[in-house]
Amino acid sequence: MLNNQGRPTAPAANDAGAAHPTFTGNRALMQEEALLFEIGRLETTGVDIPAPKTTKQRLGGLARKGEIGLPGLSEPETMRHFVRLSQKNYGIDTGLFPLGSCTMKHNPRLNEKMARLPGIGDIHPLQPVSTVQGALDLMQELSRWLLAFTNMEAVALSPKAGAHGELCGMMAIRAAIEAKGEAATRNVVLVPESAHGTNPATAALIGFQVKPVPAREDGWVHVEDLKPLLGPDVAAIMLTNPNTCGLFEPQVKEIADAMHGAGAYFYCDGANFNAIVGKARPGDLGVDAMHINLHKTFSTPHGGGGPGAGPVVLSKRLAPYAPVPFVTRDGASFDLVEHETDARAGESFGRMTAFHGQMGMYVRALSYMLSHGADGCRQASEDAVLTAHYVRAGLSDVMSLPFGDKPCMHEALFDDVWLKDTGVTTLDFAKAMIDEGYHPMTMYFPLVVHGAMLIEPTESESKASLDLFIAAMRDLAFAAKRGDVERFSGAPYHAPRRRLDETKAARSPVLKWTPPKPVAPTQKAAE
Ligand SMILES: Cc1ncc(COP(=O)(O)O)c(C=O)c1O
């Protein structure tokens, strides 16, 4: 079978597809989409510009000797290719997206409207400061909200995401340690075993030695486990709160005191800040630095539209080391401090980004804050916790909870004990969720929980949507328990592509496209 580009169609996507193959390979609205390399033609182009007049080339031996083989498409073909791909995407605008530790919540359209206002969308980072006073005002206002929510001293807006924020906070900690003349001795960073992989990676990237804090059965970090690790060599702890098990750390204050008592700093991974906005302020808990993923807590889009934003709030002890640039205000006029030599006491650790950060995300986050108000932001956190409890309560009699009845925060964590002897794994279960039209939850994270399934429904889901999700999950759980292994082992059956061979993909990845061998005319006719 050949598709409309004269190429063999991909394997049937689902049972109906296999039983009733189509000539094109399309299945009604589910259209096949080949690679650009497969559908493009060398002689085609979407632009029609005259060939440049021959000028003397000065590339010498570096000049291209032949065609580079980039495929060409007309404008409508290009358009269709990307629109079809976009239709295969699963996003928060398609359905419930319960990916734990990611906060896939609704991105209000009002925020999009604000970000596209010409006075914001059309400005350029190299414009003179006198012409972008409104934008600087907006950045200061966003900072003011972030500082109020966190009770911290300073904020660095420029980091582009959570992991970049971690780097920023840890560089501020390193700068503070250097300023105290302890750089040679304080080189250890403590990281709980339940941490997100970016935490140890960040610490290691800037030259710290990572020491794990052992996990406990109850999912919490205990100050008694920490104390034996503390010494003059410890620079900081990187602790997530609420933690990656979906629990609030009850000893967070004692942990902060122990770190400070040992002359070290407390970096808080704020990925889960969305559970406590308006309820607890990190500054009151002894945090020295924390990133805030605007794309999680304050509803800006996750990727797709360019880089995100992961502002970092800093305590009084770390504020002098904040990176440049930052906005200053003198009466009604705003300015930018661009060079570390001009920053406060000249102690800034430097610059992390070319310009000032991701303005579009600042606008969306501030729009979210202003339209919700401080009380609305607190309500969003309360509702995020409520929805997680609702899902947990709806599933806890059929799936197993690793930490018993302990109240969760904004995400419900299950393990795979309940799947024992069913022949179904966490991965199989997740694939069957795809058939039900759901993006799977976060799987196998945190690593300290066997076969973890971390579900974060978020506050944007209605009760009806949660009820349907719970009912679908229960149906799958009962199917697993009654031994309907086939529903899982071959899933997804209804997705455009069936299950990938993950071992083969990891062991022999195909990283380069190679043109297929031309099909001989007689063979083609037979097909
Ligand atoms: C606990 C935790 N820390 C850090 C990160 C990294 O954040 P980002 O993806 O914004 O870089 C994540 C991302 O999911 C996370 O869940």
What is the gist of this entry?
The protein has helices spanning 15-19, 36-39, 75-87, 109-115, 118-121, 133-150, 162-179, 198-205, 223-226, 252-261, 294-297, 359-395, 426-435, 463-481, 486-489, 502-507, 521-526, and strands at 154-156, 188-192, 209-213, 234-240, 265-269, 289-291, 312-314, 326-330, 333-337, 412-414, 442-443, 453-455. It is an alpha/beta fold and 527 residues long.
Description:
The protein has 17 helices and twelve strands. It is of the alpha/beta class and 527 residues long. Pyridoxal-5'-phosphate (PLP) binds next to helix 7.
Salient structural properties:
binds pyridoxal-5'-phosphate, alpha/beta, 527 residues, three-stranded antiparallel β-sheet, globular, single chain, 17 helices, disordered N terminus, seven-stranded mixed β-sheet
